[in-house]
Amino acid sequence: MRIAFLSFCVFPLAGCVAPIPPVEVTRFHVPEQIEAGGFVIDAAPGVNANTLEFGTYSAAVTRELLRLGFKAEGAPRYHVVVGYERTERSVAKRSPVTIGLGGGSFGSHVGLGIGTSFGVGGGTKGLVLTRMSVQMKRASDSAVLWEGRAHTESAASAPAAQPGLAASKLATALFQDFPGDSGRTITVP
Fold first, then answer.
1. Are 99 and 118 in contact (CB under 8 A)?
2. Residue 88 C-alpha from the chain's centroid
3. How far apart are CA 18 and CA 46, in angstroms?
4. Backbone angles phi, psi at 183, to 5 degrees
């Protein structure tokens, strides 16, 4: 009886997961293998590291690096520089207008019809473009060994526009199949 109750409670929640739009990712890296090691997170130039929003993005990158076997303790082998940008823009909502023309005949009678339909609404809607960039620099000489950029766009009113969801999706896409194909842009669903 308890198992049936848990199934009843959990499965409806699975349908409530917010869809996240695809992410475009481009990565570059040096030819040699990047070995796991200690790292520290730094803010990219122009990014304030003392904000909760930066904490959201750096936590998402940290989670992915830990998953890959890197360590956020001890002497750092890498400085991981995290940058992000969120911009909002307005776009016109599509208001579909269609016009149809049809005709037919039945015996000696001919019929002709014209129909139109107009969409209700119009106006504008907000879109949020979220970008993340990450560089892995060797701590000993600041040489960039790996870097990646990712972006996604969603409606401003969608859950996917929230920084926490966007940061997690971008970081997961950036580090998928790490280090990735250098110089190739991919779309991660």
1. no
2. 15
3. 31
4. 85, 0
pLDDT tens across the length of the chain (189 residues):
444 433 333 334 344 455 679 999 999 999 999 999 999 999 999 999 999 999 999 999 999 999 999 999 889 999 999 999 999 988 776 655 555 555 555 556 555 555 555 555 567 789 999 999 999 999 999 999 999 999 999 999 999 889 999 999 999 999 999 999 999 999 999
Cβ-count burial 44-68 (b if 16+ within 10 Å, e if not): beebeeeeeebebbbbbbbebbeee
| Residue 135 CB neighbours (<10 A) | 20
* Contact criterion met (CB below 8 Å) for 40 and 80: yes
What is the DSSP track for the chain? -HHHHHHHHHHHHHTTPPP---EEEEEEE-SS-----BEEEEEPTT--TTSHHHHHHHHHHHHHHHHTT-BSSSS-SEEEEEEEEEEEEEEEPP--EEEEEEEEEETTEEEEEEEEEE-S--SEEEEEEEEEEEEEEETTT--EEEEEEEEEEEETTSGGGSHHHHHHHHHHHHTTTTT--TT-EEEE-
